[in-house]
Amino acid sequence: MLSFETKLLLAIIIPALLVIFFTRVTYHHIVGLILTLALIAASVYAGYTHNWQLYAADALSLTVGFWLATRMVRKARENRDEE
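Structure (tokenized):
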């Protein structure tokens, strides 16, 4: 069983990385966000997340990941338009 500190650290890092990864795979930042939300919802349903601090950390990480993915998509479109 993972300790609370480990779960919190993972909740801060993993959702942002998943949003960025799914954005790179699908080339659309909203689809990346939706896929990550579906994975988090499945983990909550399975009982891996069970207190509000982890929910807040997931939400913060999703927000940061979505912001980074949006910037990444915008820069890719600008570079494509320049060529």
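The chain has a mean pLDDT of 91. The first helix runs from residue 4 to 26.
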